[in-house]
Every structure is written in C-alpha cells, then in structure tokens.
Amino acid sequence: MSTDQTTSSQEATSQYREINLEGLRARNIITPHGDHTRSAEEFRMIKRPLLDNAFDSTIPNGNLIMVTSSLPGEGKTFCTINLAMSIAMELNRTLLLVDADVSKPSVLRQLGITSDKGLLDLLQDKNLKLADVLIRTNIENFSVLPSGRHHKKATELLASEAMAELLQDMAQRYPDRIILFDSPPLLVTTEASVLASHMGQIVMVVEAEKTPQPAVREALSLIDSCDIVGIVLNKTTSIPGAGHYGYGYGYGYGQHN
Ligand SMILES: Nc1ncnc2c1ncn2[C@@H]1O[C@H](COP(=O)(O)OP(=O)(O)OP(=O)(O)O)[C@@H](O)[C@H]1O
Ligand SMILES: [Mg+2]
C-alpha cells in the first residue's frame, strides 16, 4: 500500500465497471436520477445524521461507517448498497463501498459486476496499491473495494495491523469521502466486532419482528468500542402504507457515552 499518491492519480489507475441500474431498480435498490420512491426518501433520512457526524471534526474517523447486524440475512448488504447510492447522490461527496464480509462477500454480485482482486489481496501483497483494486463505476462519485480473493486466513487478515493501517490511511487520506463497509453478522463471526473498533460510526440493521431482542442486545455489547451506533429497522410491516417492508431508524439507540 502506498501513501504517496494523490487522489486523482489513484482514480486514474483504478478499474472501471458498468453497474446495471435497471437491474438494481428491479430489486428495489435506489439509483441516481429521479428516484422519488418511499425507500429513497427513507434512506435520505437515514443518511442525514451519518453525514453530519462524518464531517464533524470532533468525531474520530467519523467518515468510516460500518453496516452490520446480529444475525445473517437481516438485510445488511441491501441496506449498505441503498445507503451507498443515496450518499453518492449528495453533491460534492464521494462514496467508497467496501465489501468487508470477506467470508461471504455479496456486494459485487448484488451490483452485477465482477473483479478478481480486492481488500484481502491488498492486505497480503505489499506491492498492491489501493488504486490497483478499486473499481470506479458508471455512477458518479461511487466506487467499490471488493473483498478480494478468498483466503483461508481472511479473519486474521481483517484483524491484522495491516488492516488497521489501511483503515487509518483511508480515513485520513480521503477526509471528504464516506467509506461504507458491508460486514458479517456480529453473532456469527468475530470479524465485525474487530472492524467495529476502527469505525467512527456503525449502522446496525435489525430485521423487524424477527431478530430476538437478546440477540440485538448481545450484538450491541460487541460493538461498544464505537460511540455512535444507529439502528435501521428493516423489513417492517407495521408502517402504514409501507407495503411489505419499510424502514424505521432509531438514531442514538445503543449509544455508549
Ligand atoms: N427492505 C428490504 N426489501 C426487500 N428486500 C430486502 C430488504 N432487505 C433485505 N432484502 C432481501 O433479503 C435478502 C437478504 O438480504 P441481504 O443479503 O442484504 O442480508 P445480509 O444481512 O447482508 O445477509 P448475510 O448475513 O448473508 O450477508 C436479499 O435477497 C435482499 O435483497
Ligand atoms: Mg450480506
């Protein structure tokens, strides 16, 4: 990893992929250009406090934001991609989406793109630079860092000093950029809680009417190293007019001051 490149030369050498926006819309994922759907509106509300905190100089690494949950399948990746799209649509903001669910990556598949290298390669190969594995896309201000080639020591790599240095470097080198991490479920692997200790903010996705309260409580206890934890209640049915799902956002719930 090199720290001596400018942002523009980083962008110039990275790869480029076309995301199929129609495909995303078909799966209820918000896209740039004129989405006035209910979920676009809801993610706009979810991102607002995240953006305020991200650029508050009193919050360390506020621009590093991890999306996680207690259990598998609660909607982490779905919410991460929606949130990423919504943030990339902000004026003068750039967004880097990192697939940090290294044992079960799904961001690239959900975006309908492919790549062979990513985060795990970057952590092992000192000759690789962030620019070599970053993917720019047809969505302005939206780039992706894939999880990379499967590695049997993936968990150790994520918990390594190299990862801590990479995160610190990313947070500081791109202070005007939001770096959003998709992650594994907290109660299944140790990776997410290790990552949490480097994050400025965490979004905890909770599947409405399904995830047991003790599971949420236990998961929150694993991320108490992070001061700012917000909750997204996903797949709710109780919001009038929300159809088969909706969102609620209990910002500040689970804060540890
Ligand atoms: N609010 C929602 N509306 C519609 N579909 C949703 C919603 N949330 C999640 N889904 C769908 O539910 C499935 C599981 O979601 P997703 O893959 O985002 O969960 P996850 O928490 O990332 O799972 P894993 O723990 O396996 O990584 C996906 O098919 C996703 O498209
Ligand atoms: Mg996922």
Spell out the blueprint of helices and strands:
Elements: H1 7-13, E1 15-17, H2 21-26, H3 38-54, E2 64-69, H4 76-88, E3 94-99, H5 107-111, H6 119-124, H7 130-133, E4 135-137, E5 142-145, H8 154-158, H9 161-173, E6 177-182, H10 191-196, E7 201-207, H11 213-222, E8 229-234, E9 248-251
Parallel strand pairs: 1-4, 2-6, 2-7, 3-5, 3-6, 7-8
Antiparallel strand pairs: 4-5, 8-9
Helix pairs in contact: 3-4
Adenosine-5'-triphosphate (ATP) binds at residues 27-28, 69, 72-78, 101, 104, 106, 185, 234-235, 245.
Task: Give a description of the structure.
By secondary structure, the protein is α/β, with parallel strands linked by helices. It has one domain: 3-Layer(aba) Sandwich (Rossmann fold), CATH 3.40.50.300. The protein is 36% helix and 18% strand. It is built from eleven helices and nine strands. It has helices spanning 7-13, 21-26, 38-54, 76-88, 107-111, 119-124, 130-133, 154-158, 161-173, 191-196, 213-222, and strands at residues 15-17, 64-69, 94-99, 135-137, 142-145, 177-182, 201-207, 229-234, 248-251. Strands 1-4-5-3-6-2-7-8-9 form a nine-stranded mixed β-sheet. Strand 7 (201-207), helix 11 (213-222) and strand 8 (229-234) form a beta-alpha-beta unit. The longest helix has 17 residues, at 38-54. The N and C termini lie far apart (34 Å). It binds adenosine-5'-triphosphate (ATP) and magnesium ion. The site of magnesium ion has 5 residues, from helix 4. Magnesium ion (MG) is lined by residues 76-77, 101, 106, 182.
